[in-house]
């Protein structure tokens, strides 16, 4: 079940009403049941995988903590604790690898075998990728490591722990929560707060706007250009590439906002996942603002364990490259994601290497680093770098990505933006207008949110204005959202008989 | 903090909770009102041309209760062939066509049930063309299903209608039409903002008036074909249901085949239906072999190969009126003052066709 489905529109109010109606003691059971139901709507069997990961990490936490209580010498204790961590990590990653990467690995091994004229391996299983597996696996793994590091105590209640791993708002697409935040909140008694519920619902509405009005609308154009890239060139592709940046942001951030909002309705406070990423002034800044849950996860559990920046520059750059390689692979089992990840790594390594030079230039030309123009250029430059990397993320294959880039730079045809060609890319003039208007709203809200809490500002306004805005927003999303079977008047036109 | 302050705080909180509760209810009520308005605007509706089906279907509920002696159900064959105003003018029998383009039998069954909420006709005429058209199929496509379900107000009967007519995966779109029609925002016209169309009545009583004439050349050999084809399972199920309904509601059934260019396979199904009708004591009227008797002119009385125009309809209606009079005792209401407006509507119709 996804958030933008009719099922969820029925599921969610029922879950919330019962949740607030029953005593705290039973709420985790209710939410656990709801979360598993939520997951099983997609595929009932794969709930077993979720349960397996839950049990492995739960046990690992328990066993690690038991080592602390044993009377044994510290080095042996650490050794044994490390063993439990290793077992948990290996088991979880094996499941993840099998379901997510085995086909990819097999294809690549076969490519090598073919080159050496060795008989190819036949795939033994037809693997379907379990939805959300990358998210909940990382979430569960962080628990093992956090217990090992002594940052959180091992959980005693397997039901509550299972809810931590399967909490339905974050189950499919994050934000990947840490036990320190979410597990603690599962224990806390939540009191019904009208304002929190309202703000949660408003955030969900905003998420719906981003997802079904903007992302799904922009996707029509982007998909058409990327799927049939041989038909397009120059500025048509530039437009699609820029819009893909909008699409992926609205898609993901919208989904995160729905998750955060849904959790807030039930009194949970989840981490912020996106912080106006396209206003980043450097690529590393971008990663502090984009999918923060994942980048902080990678920082805490990959980059820092590798040594972070404490072991000299060369090692730091190596660590960055490894971290972004992992990030790329996490996003999908395809070379396009690998290249995308590595590209982000390269950006940052190059940025680091060129820093003395950049500083020299700023100094020589007396550039005020904090001037508006300087910030603007840095933001634009960062956006161009990030957006260029998105081409690899979106393209169906690495080869296609290079062709798309070739076709984009190969033709100079700015007139396509003016002569009506843009309306032939999948969105007609009216849809295109709705898209631009919505992106304008998005931009405005992003800018306003920089210095203000919009929900607090709204509370200051009178009720007519507020309700007008709520109803306006709800019906805007309902009418202009892309959902349901498409209406095609011609389907009915002759249908007189 | 002393207990007095605590008590005040508690009281304040309780009061705030009450206010919030009332606010929530108000919000939901306003939302529902707005939604129903927006839903009506976005909904696909046909309010103009001969095929103002939205008014024909929704309008039945606005006719005086139990005012129809005869009702017709089925497909376009039905709504183009029998003209209730002509019938009234000739015989004084009141009737209404409650049919929809290409409507399958299972939908017609629930259309009957819907109609019986307002009317209790003594005779029900069923166009059996859809039985032949959909023989072997379980569902019509959505260009039939949406118009069929759109104007039926939400009720148990609508749920049954949708369940019978629409494949499982698509049903939600018929319970909440907004899922489909919200994307019509691009093509809204001033007609879409007519929020009161469901309160209107159709002066033609469900009849679709076709003026154009297109000469036809029919293969009359088809009508002479013998031999039968089995009626498929779903069709048979609903034929049986309709027969049961006729007993329960105490009306007489007439199966009708209107004159059109039929296919051989279809003729064989009709032969089987004729057998079925005989077995169940149902009148079976096939107008195809009677073209000459009716005086139908292939060059003047047809709209296309499937439908007669208004001239053809008048000829068939006159004949059918005689059939109704001979077969069933139905009152002549021409001089009944309650039905005076039928005469006015007939005059309006006459004016309309002379335009």
Outline the structure in words:
The complex is a heterodimer of chains A (497) and B (355). Chain A is mainly alpha-helical. Chain A folds into 2 domains: 6-190, no CATH class; 197-480, no CATH class. Chain A is built from 21 helices and no strands. The mean pLDDT of chain A is 91. In chain B, helix 4 crosses helix 14 (310-327) and helix 4 crosses helix 15 (340-354). Chain B has helices spanning 3-42, 53-59, 76-81, 84-91, 105-115, 129-133, 142-150, 156-165, 172-175, 178-181, 233-249, 264-280, 291-294, 310-327, 340-354; strands at residues 70-74, 95-99, 123-127, 252-257, 283-286, 302-304, 307-308. Chain B has 355 residues and is α/β, with parallel strands linked by helices. Chain B has a single domain, classed as SGNH hydrolase (Rossmann fold, 3-Layer(aba) Sandwich). Chain B is elongated, with a radius of gyration of 25 Å. Chains A and B meet through helix 20 and helix 21 of A and helix 1, helix 7 and helix 10 of B.
- Report the portion of residues of chain B in β strands: 5-15%
Major sheet description of chain A: none
SSE order of chain B, one letter for each helix or strand: HHEHHEHEHHHHHHEHEHEEHH
Most extensive chain contact? Answer: A-B, 26 and 37 residues
């Amino acid at each position: 079940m996804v958030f933008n489905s009719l099922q969820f529109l029925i599921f969610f109010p029922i879950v919330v009403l019962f949740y607030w109606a029953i005593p705290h003691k039973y709420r985790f059971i209710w939410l656990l049941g709801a979360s598993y139901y939520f997951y099983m709507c997609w595929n009932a069997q794969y709930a077993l995988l979720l349960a397996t990961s839950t049990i492995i990490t739960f046990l690992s936490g328990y066993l690690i903590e038991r080592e602390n209580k044993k009377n044994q010498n510290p080095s042996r204790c650490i050794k044994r604790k490390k063993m439990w961590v290793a077992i948990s990590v290996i088991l979880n990653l094996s499941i993840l690898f099998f379901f997510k990467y085995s086909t990819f690995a097999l294809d690549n091994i076969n490519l090598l075998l073919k080159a050496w004229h060795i008989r190819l391996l036949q795939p033994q299983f037809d693997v379907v990728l379990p939805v959300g597996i990358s998210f909940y696996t990382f979430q569960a793994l962080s628990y093992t490591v956090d217990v090992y590091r002594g940052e959180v105590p091992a959980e005693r209640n397997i039901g509550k722990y299972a809810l931590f791993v399967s909490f339905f708002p974050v189950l499919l697409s994050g934000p990947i929560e840490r036990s320190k935040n979410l597990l603690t909140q599962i224990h806390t008694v939540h009191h019904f707060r009208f304002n929190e519920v309202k703000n949660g619902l408003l955030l969900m509405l905003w998420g719906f706007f981003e997802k079904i009005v903007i992302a799904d609308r922009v996707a029509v154009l982007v998909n058409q250009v990327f799927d049939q890239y041989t038909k397009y060139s120059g500025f048509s592709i530039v437009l699609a590439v820029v819009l893909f940046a909008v699409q992926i942001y609205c898609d993901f951030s919208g989904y995160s906002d729905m998750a955060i909002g849904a959790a807030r309705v039930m009194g949970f406070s989840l981490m912020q996942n996106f912080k106006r990423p396209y206003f980043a002034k450097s690529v590393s800044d971008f990663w502090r603002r984009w999918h923060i849950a994942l980048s902080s996860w990678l920082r805490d559990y990959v980059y820092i364990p590798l040594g972070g920046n404490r072991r000299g520059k060369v090692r730091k750059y190596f660590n960055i490259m490894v971290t972004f390689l992992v990030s790329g692979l996490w996003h999908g089992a395809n070379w396009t994601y690998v290249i995308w990840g590595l590209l982000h790594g390269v950006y940052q390594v190059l940025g680091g290497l060129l820093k003395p030079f950049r500083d020299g230039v700023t100094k020589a030309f007396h550039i005020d680093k904090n001037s508006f123009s300087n910030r603007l250029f840095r933001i634009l430059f960062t956006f161009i770098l990030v957006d260029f990397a998105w081409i690899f993320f979106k393209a169906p294959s690495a080869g296609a990505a290079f062709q798309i880039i070739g076709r984009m730079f190969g033709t100079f045809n700015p007139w396509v933006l003016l002569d009506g060609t843009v309306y032939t890319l999948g969105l007609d003039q009216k849809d295109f207008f709705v898209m631009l208007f919505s992106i304008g709203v998005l931009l405005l809200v992003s800018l306003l949110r920089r210095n203000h809490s919009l929900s607090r500002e709204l509370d200051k306004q009178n009720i007519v204005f507020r309700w007008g805005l709520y109803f306006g927003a709800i019906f805007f999303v309902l009418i202009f959202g892309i959902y349901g079977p498409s209406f095609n008047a011609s389907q009915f036109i002759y249908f007189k008989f | 903090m002393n207990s007095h302050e605590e008590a005040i705080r508690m009281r304040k909180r309780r009061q705030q909770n009450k206010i919030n509760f009332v606010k929530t209810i108000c919000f939901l009520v306003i939302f529902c009102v707005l939604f129903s308005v927006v839903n009506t605007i976005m909904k696909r509706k046909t309010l103009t041309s001969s095929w103002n089906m939205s008014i024909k279907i929704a309008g039945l509920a606005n006719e005086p209760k139990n005012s129809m002696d005869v009702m017709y159900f089925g497909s376009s064959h039905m709504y183009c062939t029998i003209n209730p105003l002509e019938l009234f003018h000739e015989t004084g029998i009141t009737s209404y066509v409650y049919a929809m383009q290409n409507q399958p039998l299972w939908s017609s069954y629930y259309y009957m049930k819907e109609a019986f909420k307002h009317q209790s006709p003594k005779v029900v005429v069923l166009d059996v063309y859809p039985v032949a058209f959909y023989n072997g199929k379980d569902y019509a496509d959505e260009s039939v299903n949406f118009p069929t379900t759109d104007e039926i107000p939400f009720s148990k009967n609508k749920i049954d209608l949708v369940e019978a007519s629409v494949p499982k995966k698509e049903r939600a779109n018929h319970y909440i039409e907004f899922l489909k029609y919200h994307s019509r925002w691009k093509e809204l016209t001033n007609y879409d903002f007519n929020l009161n169309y469901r309160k209107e009545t159709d002066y033609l009583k469900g009849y679709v008036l076709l003026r154009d004439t297109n000469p036809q050349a029919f293969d009359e050999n088809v009508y002479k074909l013998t031999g039968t084809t089995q009626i498929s399972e779903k069709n048979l199920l609903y034929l049986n249901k309709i027969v049961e309904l006729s007993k329960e509601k105490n009306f007489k059934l007439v199966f009708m085949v209107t004159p059109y260019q039929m296919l051989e396979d279809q003729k064989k199904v009709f032969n089987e239906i004729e057998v079925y009708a005989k077995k169940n004591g149902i009148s079976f009227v096939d107008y195809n072999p009677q073209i000459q008797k009716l005086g139908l002119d292939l060059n003047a009385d047809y709209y296309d190969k499937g439908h007669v125009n208004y001239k053809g309809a008048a000829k068939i209606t006159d004949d059918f009126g005689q059939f109704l009079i001979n077969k069933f005792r139905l009152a002549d209401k021409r001089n009944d003052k309650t039905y005076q407006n039928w005469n006015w509507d007939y005059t309006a119709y006459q004016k309309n066709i002379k335009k």
